[in-house]
Amino acid sequence: VQLQASGGGLVQAGGSLRLSCAASGRSFSLNAVAWYRQAPGKQRELVALIASGGNTNYADSVKGRFTISRDNAKNTVYLQMNSLKPDDTAVYYCNRIPPFSRGGFDYWGQGTQVTVSS
Question: Which of the residues 6, 55, 76, 97 could staple to 32 if both were Cys, CB 3.0 to 4.6 A apart?
């Protein structure tokens, strides 16, 4: 399996970004899929989740600003991020629930860096 996250970058506070994450080698169409983020010195946290049926859930810190969606035909999940804040700065990862594994360990891919300047 390969997870390829993209769409990150440097943006000013109040700006928007759209992240994409494509899985190859394994399908996650039957699983819930989530976006996570990890800021320097902090633990990885769940940001948004979308069930196989389309129900969504968000961390309180991003409710009303972020929208998760999925395209099962493309095996891809998206995260539309609006009204970005400096606190949103982190490396963003996607994964299915439960996470993909490689060699007996959870596999996360490289993620994509989001940096929000004030």
Answer: 97
